[in-house]
Amino acid sequence: AERTLVLVKPDGVRRGLSGEVLRRIEAKGYTLAAVELKSATPELLAEHYAEHAGKPFYGPLVEFMLSGPILAVVAEGQGVIAGFRSLAGATNPTEAAPGTIRGDLARDWGLKVQQNLVHGSDSVESAEREIALWFPHL
Ligand code: GTP
Ligand code: MG
Questions:
Q1: Global ipTM
Q2: pTM as predicted
Q3: Enzyme catalytic residues
Q4: Quick one: three-class SS letters along the chain?
Q5: Where are the domains of the chain?
Q6: Does domain 3-134 have CATH number 3.30.70.141?
Q7: Shortest-distance atom of ligand 1 to CA 85
Q8: pLDDT tens track for 5-24
Q9: For ligand 1, is residue 94 a contact (CB within 6 Å)?
Q10: Around ion ligand 2, which residues have CB less than 5 A away?
Q11: Is 12 near ligand 1, meaning CB less than 6 Å away?
């Protein structure tokens, strides 16, 4: 079945929203294939965010992702890659629609990076690459 990598970012774990994110994934009918609380490293994030290297928000993004534990999740199901991105909502939490994770639970804090609670892979290729990075044993 199709699989995607979901991360509950440090803001989500800090705010106690890990369970809420897992609840929404399961309520939608996707399966949890792996769930693990992790600490990122600069090396892991350099690979995970390779597409963003050199962008103005890259430094603050990596710093934010190192600011606390991350809940790494592999979710499984037909259409889960696009489906989870629908559940997550727009990248910018101010623009994210109500009903989505970011629309309901995140807001703009005026910081240097969008603290938007979750990450979701954006394609089959990204999902396979990211799952291998975060869950090398899977
Ligand atoms: P992810 O699921 O987190 O990958 O979200 P996305 O695919 O909607 O966003 P993208 O991959 O483009 O960017 C990765 C992360 O970088 C975002 O989730 C934000 O935390 C941050 N980010 C992206 N674009 C911007 C931006 O224009 N400004 C700021 N401040 N942060 C950004
Ligand atoms: Mg992305």
A1: 0.93
A2: 0.96
A3: 119
A4: CCEEEEEECHHHHHCCCHHHHHHHHHHCCCEEEEEEEECCCHHHHHHHCHHHCCCCCHHHHHHHHCCCCEEEEEEECCCHHHHHHHHHCCCCCCCCCCCCHHHHHCCCCCCCCCCCCEEECCCHHHHHHHHHHHCCCC
A5: 3-134
A6: yes
A7: 2
A8: 999 999 999 999 999 999 99
A9: no
A10: 122
A11: no
